[in-house]
Amino acid sequence: MAKGIDVRQTTGSIDFRAFLQDSVGDLVTTGTGNLRLYELQSSGTLKSFDWATKSFTYDTLSVEHTGMTHQSGNNNNRATAIWTSILPVITGFSSGNIYFAQVEHSGASPILQTREFQFGDEQGDGLNAVADATLRRDLSAVVGVNYRSLLNALRFLRNKWTISGSTLTVYKEDDTTIAWTAILSSSPSDPVTGSDPS
């Protein structure tokens, strides 16, 4: 873990971890570490997370931060300088939005550390959201398709296709424009014995 903040989203929580050192590189294991969260708006402004309501707002916060806990290893005999906090309620977060996690500790150097992350994307189980969005994406919205691509393979399963003579024609999403063709092999006992996409 490099010095700084790490974020891990799971199905029902977001885990925050910070590795804190002081100005000479010693481990920060005591004192108070606080975590604040911000949501970036399309206007470039920030909403702050209220830890009391578990929601983002422009209003004055009831509770601006939550405490972080220093975690020890080796049956509490090894200081690690790893501070953690778990947010178990994530209903205030929106998939795809940009957020900032900010950790403050007066004994750390720097005192403030900030990490940007995107909810429901690359952090942890948020990859499920990417997979779901991929599976639900309208094929007609994809541009610049390579000939031997997954999209062209899927077109054979979902779009219109025809056989004329020995030519298989697979169409794009409008069922009119040709996506790709293949030469089919056949025999008297088996109408189609093979396909050779061009």
Short description:
This protein has 198 residues and is mainly beta. The protein is built from 2 helices and 13 strands.
State the end-to-end distance: 49 Å
- Structural class by SSE content: mainly beta
Q: Number of domains in the coordinates?
A: 2
CATH-defined architecture of the largest domain: Sandwich
Integer-rounded radius of gyration: 27 Å
Reported for the largest beta sheet, the result is: 9 strands, antiparallel
Q: Please count the helical segments.
A: 2
Kindly identify the CATH topology of the largest domain: Immunoglobulin-like
Strand tally is 13
Task: Specify the overall morphology.
Answer: elongated
Order of H and E elements: EEEEEEEEEHHEEEE
CATH class of the largest domain: Mainly Beta
Instruction: Quote the beta fraction.
Output: 35-45%
What does this structure look like?
It is elongated and about 85 Å long. A hairpin with a 4-residue loop joins strand 4 (about 45-50) and strand 5 (about 55). Helix content is about 10%, strand content about 45%. The chain is built from two helices and 13 strands; from the N terminus they run βββββββββααββββ. The longest helix is centred in the middle third of the chain and has 10 residues, at about 125-135. It is mostly beta strands and about 200 residues long. The strands form two sheets. Strands 1, 2, 3, 4, 5, 6, 7, 8 and 9 form a nine-stranded antiparallel β-sheet that branches. A four-stranded antiparallel β-sheet has the order 10-11-12-13. It has two domains: about 5-135, Immunoglobulin-like, CATH 2.60.40; about 140-195, no CATH class.
